[in-house]
Amino acid sequence: MKLPKIDGERLWSAHMAMAQVGRIEGDGVCRLAASDEDRAGRDLFARWCEEAGLSVRIDGIGNMFARRPARDDTLAPVLIGSHLDSQPTGGRFDGAFGVLSGLEIVRTLNDAAIETEAPIEIVNWTNEEGCRFQPSSLGAEVAAGHIALEQGLAAEDENGITLGVELDRIGYRGDSGIALNARAYLEGHIEQGPILEENGEDVSIVQGSMGVNAYSVTLMGVEAHTGTTPVTRRKDALYAAARCITEVRALAEEFEPDGRATVARLLVEPNARSVVASKVVFTTDCRHRSPASLDEMSRRLRQIVDRVSAECGLGYTMTPYWTVPPRNFDADCVGALEAAASAMGLRHRRMVSGAGHDAIPVSAVVPTAMIFVPSRGGVSHHVSEYTAPEHLEAGCNVLFQAAVRLAGIADAGGQRA
Ligand SMILES: [Zn+2]
Asked: Domain 211-324 maps to which CATH number in 3.40.50.300, 3.40.50.720, 2.60.40.10, 3.30.70.360?
């Protein structure tokens, strides 16, 4: 059976309508997780789903699942989705694209009166962004069983208000079971980087995610007067940090394009103009798609800190604060997305995600894959974030073809096509 195409104009209109919810100056959105704006976005999404004939259920951490009936409703569903929460000054497409693509796929199936063999469910995961409650992808982490429900509900924002209290307040703490039972999960997302645009490509098929080893490094020196202490007699923690940062940059260049290494945060004590720094705390963030290479990067990083500290006469500590293993997405799901992109004649490449996404925890328990669509200028988490309508449309068509292939089409006799 030749499948129809999704309606690109309708998909764009849904993005523009959702972007009115929590709209901020400069065409951005602010829909912090479990805020009033998040509730309004959820309400709009739920209304659209009900109008499309879907039944919406909410689990205990506020994840929303909108189910389209199938020929065999006992089969595990194909999930399609992402998140509707945003950064405080977020854009119109991050997260929304994955959820609204799911909606457009269902609308297209309805219009063409296509019955799938297994159900299709659209999912909106709670608190992907991690800017109000930590960690990020909290709803997906709880659903994947990596974080206990009680622990997730107890996450506090900066005012000490818990996610559980806020979900109750906005009416989105549900009672359906947490455990995920799905035959596949497909997520569409904006790239948030410059690669597709620079190469004039339409879509990337994401085959997995980089692992992360992140440390907090503390260098301990000695305060000294900047006017009276010769440099060779100093134990200057800021000078040592600068040398470490330069070497981490060289390490990063050596491991690109499959790896990343970054120092992004620096705290200096006493941070006074006439005092040699006695203490510097900085973060190091190493990422790589291969576990062995990630270990190698972390080993080299420790060598850098150890050697520079010794040469500068300093003590140091290195404490891990974030560790995520690299994940490979499911070969069948990756294959279904790639076949769809090829069949449509789209310019596509494979990619590994260096950013966090709901698909990453979900992939531990459900066969999963993602696509990225181009981000203009590589910009995201900003009001100017933009993806062209034709790229949203192409990406949604890829998700549509793959989702229907994974769910199967029911024929008149009830056999899987
Ligand atoms: Zn996102």
From this structure: 3.30.70.360
Per the listing, tokens 């339409």 go with 202
* Cα(366) to centroid(ligand 1), Å: 19
Distance 179 CA to ligand 1 centre (A): 22
- Ligand 1 centroid to Cα of residue 127, in Å, is 10
pLDDT per position as a tens digit, 18-49: 999 999 999 999 999 999 999 999 999 999 99
- Taking the centre of ligand 1 as the mean of its atom positions, its distance from the CA of residue 153, in whole angstroms, is 21
Q: How far is the CA of 282 from the centre of ligand 1 (A)?
A: 26
Among the listed residues 231, 248, 255, the one whose alpha carbon sits nearest the alpha carbon of residue 282 = 248
Dihedral pair phi/psi, residue 353, rounded to 5°: -80, 125
Output the CA 354–ligand 1 centroid distance in Å. 12
The domain ranges of the chain are: 8-209+327-407, 211-324
Report CA-CA distances (Å) from 109 to 1, 10, 78, 114, 397. 13, 14, 14, 5, 12
359-397 tens-digit pLDDT: 999 999 999 999 999 999 999 999 999 999 999 999 999
Å from CA of 250 to ligand 1 middle: 29
Phi first, then psi: what are they for 279, rounded to 5°? -150, 135
Query: Which overall architecture, per CATH, does domain 8-209+327-407 show?
Result: 3-Layer(aba) Sandwich (3.40)
Distance from the alpha carbon of residue 361 to the mean position of ligand 1, in angstroms: 14
